[in-house]
C-alpha cells in the first residue's frame, strides 16, 4: 500500500488511501505518508483522505484534517468527509480552525465551523462545548457574522438532543456569548414585528428568537399571534413557542386560543399535545370551556382517552368520553337537508382553498398529503357529505394517523 500512496496516477492514490484504513494502526510509515498527502492537488484524493483520517487517532491526524478543511471547504462533500472524521476530536479541530485567522478566512470554513459547533452540541461533551464558547471571545469584531453562525450551530445541536446544558448555557451566558446572543435577539425582535419587511426575513427572525430564553422572546412571539398577521408568521410564532419547555407556553396559548383562526388552532394544539406536562393545563381549559372538545382533532381526543398516564387518561374520560364516543351519524343526519340546496362552484373553490388544500390537491391547488380527490364526485352527494362530516369512518391504511413519542418526551402526530 505504501508505494501506491505515492503512485503517479491520482485514482491509484485515491484507492490506496482507502485501503490504508486496513493497516493504518500497525504502520507508522503509512500514517506519516497520509499526513503528507494533504498537499496533493486532487479533490478526490482529498475527499477519501478526509474519510480515512477518521481511522487515525492523535493530534497529527486532527491537524491534517484542519489542513484539508482549509484547502477546500467550499465543497460540501469535503466538509461532509471532514465532519465524518471529527468524532472524538470536535473541540480540537474546531479550535485549530477558529483560532487561526488564515484558516478561519478560507472559503467555506465558516460553514464548517457552524457544523462543528452543532456537532459539539449534539455530542454534549462539556469540554468541547467550553472550547466552542471560548472561541467566541477570541473572534475580532469583524468576525461577528461568524460568531453568530457558531452560536446558532452550538445551540441548535444542544436543542436537537434536548440537552439541559442549552438552557443553562443561555440563562447564565456571559462574555462574548452573552453579547452575541443579545445582539441577535435584539435584531430578531425588531425584524420579526416589522410588518413592512419581507415575510421570509420575518420567519427567519422568529426562528432566531428561540435562541434566547422564554422570558426574553415570549412578548414578541405572542404579539405575532394577532389574526392580522400573515398566516405564515403566526404559524412560525406558535412553532417557536413550542420549542420552549416552560410551563407558561401552554397557559399563554390557551389565553390566545379564542382569537386564533382554525388553522392556527391546529398548530397550537400540536404544541399543546407535544409535551406531557402541558396536558393537565389543556384539560383545565376543556373543563373551564376555554377550549371546546369540538375544536380539537378526534385523534387528539382519542390520544387523551388512551394516554399512558392514568391521571390524564381518567380525567379525559370524565371530560370527553361522551363527546368522543358519540356516533357521527347523528351529525350527518343533521346536515342532510343541505343536499337539497343548489351548489355554488366558486364558493366551493374558496372553501376548498381555505380548509382542504392543506392536505388535498385539486385543480392544481393544494398539497398531495391526503386522499386524491380527482374522482370524489363519483361518490355522489351523499358520499361526499359523509366523508366531510365523518372522515374517520373509512380510512385507507396509508392515511392512518400515528402518534409518536420521542425519547425526550415530545409527542408528534401525523401520517407516516
Task: List the SSEs and their pairings.
Layout: H1 10-19, H2 28-36, H3 43-52, H4 59-72, H5 76-84, H6 90-98, H7 101-104, H8 109-123, H9 126-138, H10 144-160, H11 164-171, H12 175-192, H13 199-208, H14 214-223, H15 231-242, H16 248-256, H17 262-273, H18 279-287, H19 298-305, H20 310-325, H21 329-334, H22 345-356, E1 361-362, E2 365-366, H23 380-389, E3 402-405, E4 411-414
Antiparallel strand pairs: 1-2, 3-4
Helix pairs in contact: 1-3, 3-5, 4-6, 6-8, 6-9, 8-10, 9-10, 10-12, 12-13, 13-15, 14-15, 15-17, 18-20, 19-20
Report on the structure:
- The chain is mostly helical and 416 residues long.
- It has 23 helices and 4 strands.
- A hairpin with a 5-residue loop joins strand 3 and strand 4.
- Helix 19 crosses helix 20 (310-325).
- The longest helix is centred in the middle third of the chain and has 18 residues, at 175-192.
The quaternary organization reads as: single chain
**Could you estimate the helical fraction of the residues in percent?**
55-70%
- The fraction of residues assigned to DSSP E strands is under 5%
> What would the average pLDDT be, to the nearest integer?
87
Summarize the structure.
The chain has about 425 residues and is mostly helical. The chain is about 60% helix and about 5% strand. A hairpin with a 5-residue loop joins strand 3 (about 400-405) and strand 4 (about 410-415).
Descriptive tags:
two-stranded antiparallel sheet; 416 residues; elongated; mainly alpha; 60% helix
Amino acid at each position: 500500500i505504501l508505494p501506491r500512496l505515492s503512485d503517479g496516477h491520482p485514482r491509484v492514490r485515491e484507492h490506496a488511501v482507502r485501503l490504508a484504513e486496513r493497516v493504518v494502526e500497525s504502520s507508522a510509515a503509512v500514517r506519516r505518508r497520509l499526513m503528507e498527502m494533504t498537499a496533493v492537488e486532487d479533490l478526490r484524493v482529498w475527499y477519501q483522505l478526509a474519510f480515512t483520517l477518521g481511522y487515525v487517532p492523535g493530534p497529527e491526524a486532527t491537524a491534517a484534517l484542519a489542513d484539508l478543511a482549509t484547502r477546500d471547504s467550499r465543497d460540501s462533500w469535503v466538509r461532509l468527509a471532514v465532519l465524518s472524521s471529527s468524532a472524538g476530536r470536535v473541540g480540537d479541530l474546531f479550535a485549530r480552525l477558529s483560532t487561526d485567522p488564515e484558516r478561519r478566512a478560507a472559503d467555506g470554513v465558516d460553514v464548517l465551523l457552524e457544523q462543528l459547533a452543532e456537532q459539539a452540541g449534539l455530542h454534549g461533551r462539556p469540554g468541547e462545548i467550553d472550547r466552542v464558547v471560548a472561541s467566541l471571545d477570541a473572534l475580532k469584531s469583524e468576525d461577528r457574522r461568524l460568531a453568530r453562525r457558531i452560536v446558532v450551530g452550538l445551540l441548535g445541536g444542544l436543542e436537537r438532543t434536548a440537552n439541559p446544558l442549552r438552557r443553562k448555557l443561555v440563562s447564565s451566558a456571559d462574555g462574548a456569548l452573552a453579547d452575541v446572543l443579545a445582539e441577535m435577539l435584539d435584531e430578531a425582535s425588531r425584524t420579526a414585528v416589522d410588518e413592512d419587511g419581507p415575510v421570509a426575513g420575518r420567519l427567519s427572525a422568529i426562528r432566531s428568537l428561540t435562541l434566547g430564553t422564554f422570558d426574553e422572546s415570549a412578548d414578541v412571539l405572542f404579539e405575532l399571534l394577532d389574526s392580522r398577521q400573515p398566516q405564515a408568521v403566526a404559524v412560525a410564532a406558535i412553532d417557536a413557542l413550542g420549542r420552549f419547555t416552560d410551563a407558561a407556553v401552554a397557559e399563554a396559548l390557551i389565553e390566545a386560543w379564542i382569537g386564533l383562526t382554525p388553522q392556527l388552532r391546529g398548530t397550537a394544539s400540536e404544541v399543546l399535545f407535544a409535551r406531557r406536562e402541558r396536558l393537565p393545563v389543556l384539560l383545565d381549559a376543556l373543563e373551564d370551556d376555554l377550549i371546546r372538545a369540538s375544536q380539537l382533532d378526534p385523534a387528539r381526543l382519542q390520544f387523551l382517552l388512551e394516554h399512558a398516564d392514568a391521571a390524564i387518561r381518567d380525567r379525559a374520560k370524565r371530560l370527553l368520553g361522551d363527546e368522543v364516543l358519540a356516533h357521527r351519524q347523528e351529525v350527518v343526519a343533521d346536515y342532510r337537508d343541505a343536499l337539497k340546496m343548489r351548489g355554488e362552484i366558486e364558493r366551493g373553490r374558496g372553501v376548498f382553498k381555505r380548509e382542504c388544500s392543506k392536505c388535498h390537491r385539486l385543480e392544481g391547488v393544494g398539497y398531495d398529503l391526503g386522499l386524491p380527490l380527482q374522482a370524489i364526485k363519483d361518490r355522489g352527494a351523499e358520499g361526499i357529505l359523509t366523508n366531510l362530516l365523518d372522515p374517520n369512518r373509512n380510512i385507507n391504511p396509508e392515511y392512518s394517523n400515528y402518534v409518536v413519542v420521542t425519547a425526550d418526551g415530545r409527542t408528534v402526530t401525523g401520517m407516516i
